[in-house]
Amino acid sequence: MAEVFRARIHGPEGFAKDLALKLILPHFSDDPEFRRMFANEAALAARLDHVNIVRIHEFEQIEGRYCIAMELVDGRDLRQLLARANQLGRHLSPAEAVVIGAEMCRGLAYAHGELTPGAPVIIHRDISPHNVIISRAGEVKLADLGIAKLASGGGSTLPGVVKGKVAYMSPEQAAGLPLDPRTDLFSLGCVLWEMLTGQRLFTGPNDLAVLERLRSEPILPPSAHNRAVPARLDALVLKALARDREQRTASASGLGRELERVQRELPEFDRAGLIGDLVRALWPDLERRGGTDVMPLPAGTPVEASAQALEAAAGPAAEPAALMPEPVPEPGTDEPTEVEPVTEPASAPPAPGPARSTRRVWPALLGLALLAGLLAGLLAAWPLLAPGSPGDEVADAGPAGDLGGGAGAGEAAGSSPRPVLASPTGPGTGGPAVAGPALAALASAARQSAGAGVVPAPSAERRPATGRLDLNVIPWARVYLNRRLLGDTPLQGLVLPVGEHQLRLENPMTGRVKLHRVRIQANQTSKEIVELR
After folding, report:
1. Which has more pLDDT, 235 or 422?
2. 435-452 vs 358-385: helix crossing angle, rounded to 10
3. Active site residue 126
4. What distance in Å separates the CA atoms of residue 504 and residue 361, rounded to the nearest whole number?
5. Which residue in the list 77, 126, 184, 488 is annotated as catalytic?
6. Which domain holds residue 521?
7. Number of domains in the chain
């Protein structure tokens, strides 16, 4: 329902702060239900000021579009962290999973009103790895309160409407029953189980299959997939996953205290540095890069133009504004779609070292080959040009002035209409006086061109120019290009070759199919919104 930009707010005396800017999509601006949801998210989140919850700074309307300015977290969400760990063949340790789970409990306990007397009870209803952000400093924050509601009845959902991600729903939420804070604890149990095992608890080819498994499939303890999980932690996770909420863990603060007790019994107890070390281990290049620099915007830049200004300042070769390298997405049917580029990946940059790259060696080799050929020609012509040889007749055939008339070698070289290969004959001339400086100058020029890389290296690989595509289909579609599945919409940052492409959009649920042409321009992002209702 919205798009997110990285922006910078300016104040007096050089004050500046980076924010995340969330704007409702233009085609939803006329929908009263979407506007109400967006405003509801801002109103609920503004009430929550806690270290384990993403903070809201401002809520405004810009040219008819609602906008939320929120805390920018230097990190990635838990879904991406788990996918990255799986890509590297590394699983989270029980201690790492317990620490993340305990921090999530702190944020939920605050939202549920357990920490402040008289505070309203806010049920998140969408606890999942997608909405848990892990910062590079090791902070754990809950995000996206877009479907949260007050337990007192504010922002209630219409009867029969189910909201949230099916794979992490509680049974009562999937059944459309009235909810209390324990629904969030079931979802948190699903996340804990996934962190401990490296796989989702409830999976299936479609939402109906997932719901059926949620209703009836036996739930195995995490230790059935990971022997490192202690029995006490098994018991805590299974209690949070009780299908009967009366048998479930009673409160987020109670579950958090139990997780902390389990952590004290585990070998890794450095809670302060454990998660930060985990993030740096999964993305070690952050140590070398030191994070992504932010290009400042001029004071007074309109907030809605900040994304375009950042892109323009970055230039055509700029990378996306993500703070970390993009990981491989985990399998599943309900996570945001991320698509592999169509073009082949760029080759890795050469390792640093004292040796010159092949692009700088080729010019040197070409220069040496030319020099060798010229020297061979001089050696072959030398018998004809040496004094006392038949070549003297050729040299003396014209007036002395043609060969310089006693002038310096430089003047002879500069005034002669043809290459001068020998000095004028006479006393004290013992060989070619012009050829030596000319060849030295030629060799010097060859060395300079080789060192500066003036001559372009022959390259067998010329990668075609590419651009990016952001595609959103209403309600959604499966996207194909030349019978190749690109993924399900929304697609963000899809890399395609420059030119026109015909995409096939299919919605398996409605049976609707549409062919849609897109034009990709070099180093630019094309944004397309297609109606398929």
Report:
1. 235
2. 170
3. yes
4. 47
5. 126
6. 337-343+464-533
7. 3
